[in-house]
User: Fold this.
Amino acid sequence: MSSIDTHPTQTVASLRSRIIGIDQKVPLLDGSEQVYIYLDNAASTPSLRSAKEKVNELLQYYSSIHRGAGYKSLISTQAYERARELIIKFVGADSEKDVAIFGKNTTEATNILADSIDWKDGDVVLITLMEHHSNDLPWRKHATVEHFPVQPDGFFDLNAFEDILKSFKGRVRLVATTGASNVTGIIPPFYEIAKLAHQYNAMILVDCAQLAPHRPIDMRPHDSLDHLDFICLSAHKMYAPFGTGVLVGSKMFFDAAQPVFRGGGVIEIVTLDEVYWAKAPDKYEAGSPNVLGAVALGASIRELMAVGMQAIADHEKELTHYALTRLNQIAGVRLYGSRDPNRLGDRVGVIPFAIEGIQHGKVAAILSFEGGIGVRNGCFCAHPYLISLLNISQQEFAHFKQQVLQGDRRQQPGMVRASFGCYTNQEEIDHLITWIERIISGDYRGDYVQDKSSGSFFPRQFDPATLEKFFTL
Ligand SMILES: Cc1ncc(COP(=O)(O)O)c(C=O)c1O
Assistant:
C-alpha cells in the first residue's frame, strides 16, 4: 500500500460535494434541464475544489520559479517542489533514489521515456494488447514493439508472457504495461510482470493514467524483483485538470540519459561550444514549468490521501459490481472484457458495452441529448485492442481503414464506455440503466443525423450556438 493511505481522515461520500460542477444542469431535447451525469471519468475527471482553491491561493503569490530571487518566487518554488514530494509519496517511490518529472500528461511522459533510453539495434519493447496508443506509438519510433495478447476476460497468461521474454533472448529492453485498461478497466498483474521483466533483464513501465485515480500505487523498493522502474500519470484524470502529468523513475537512470527538450533550466553551465547538463528533474523540465498544474495535482493528491485510495477502490468496486449485475440482466446489451460481477478484484470502474442493432455513436448521443448523461464512444485510442475485442476480421478492418482514410467514419466500429469516478453514486448508474432500457425499447424521441467525417450523431435540430449560453470566451 502506498504510504499516503495510512491515515485517512475523510470519507469517500464527502468527496461528491467537493467536485466542481456536480450540480450543473444541462439542456435536454424535450426543452427541460437536468443535472448532468458524468460517466466519462476515464477520459478526464472534473476538478476537486481543493485543486482550484490551491491554484487560486497560489495565484496571489504566483511568480516564475527556481531562478527568481524575489519572495514570491521562493513561495512558488517551494509550492512546486512540495507537489513533487507529494507525488513521490503517492506512488510509493523512494525519495532518495527516484525522481518525479513534471510534464503535460501521460503521453508526454511515455514520449520522454522513449526518447531517454539509449536504444540499441534489435531492441524490443514488449507491451500488452490492451495499451492506449500513448503506451505503444512512442516505442514504435525506436524499437520493435511486440503486443502480448490478453484474453477477453482479462486473463493474463504469465507463462506465455515468460515464453515471449525468453524467445527474444535478452533483446527485450522494456516491458510497458498499462496499470488498468482504459477500455475494459482490466488490471493486469503488473507486479508479476515486473518480476518476469527483471528476471530477463528488462525494465518495466506501468502506465498508471487509468490506475492512479482508482487504486493505491506502490512502486515497491528498488531491490525487490517486483519493483516498478517507471510509472506515469495524468493530473486531469485525478481531479486536477490543470495541464500536468508526471513520469517517475530512477534518478540514476535519468541522470545518465540525455535530455529530451533543450533550453532554459536544463543545464549547469553553457559556453559557446560546451554544455553541462543539470541533473534530473531539471534536465527534463526545459523552459518555464506549469507551477499551477503541479500545485493542483498536489492538492488533489492530498484530498485523495485524506480519504484513502483503498476506500476509494472499495467504493468503486461496489459500484462496478452493481452496474455489471444490472447490465448483465438486460437483453440486448453486449458487455466487453470481463463481464462477471463476481470477478472484480482485477478491474476498475470502466465498462464498455454495445446495444445490439444501434450504432455506438447514436447510443452515446441519445444518452447525452435525452438522458443528460456524458459517456464516450468509439475506439478509445486503443485500436488494436478494440479490433481484438470486437473480433473484427482482417478483411473487415481493411474496409473500415479504407473508409476512414477517405474521411468517412460513419461505419467505424466501436463501443460505448461508462466510467466511474470516486464521487459516482448508485442513482447515476440507475439513470444510465433506465436510459439503456429506453433506447433498447425505442423509447427516445430525437431524429439523429450522423456527421460523415467524425462519425458523431446529433439531433437534427441541434444548434452548437446554444453552447454559448453556458460559456463564452
Ligand atoms: C491507460 C491510458 N494511458 C494513457 C493515456 C493518455 O493520457 P493523456 O491523454 O493524459 O496523455 C490515457 C488516456 O485516456 C489512458 O487511459
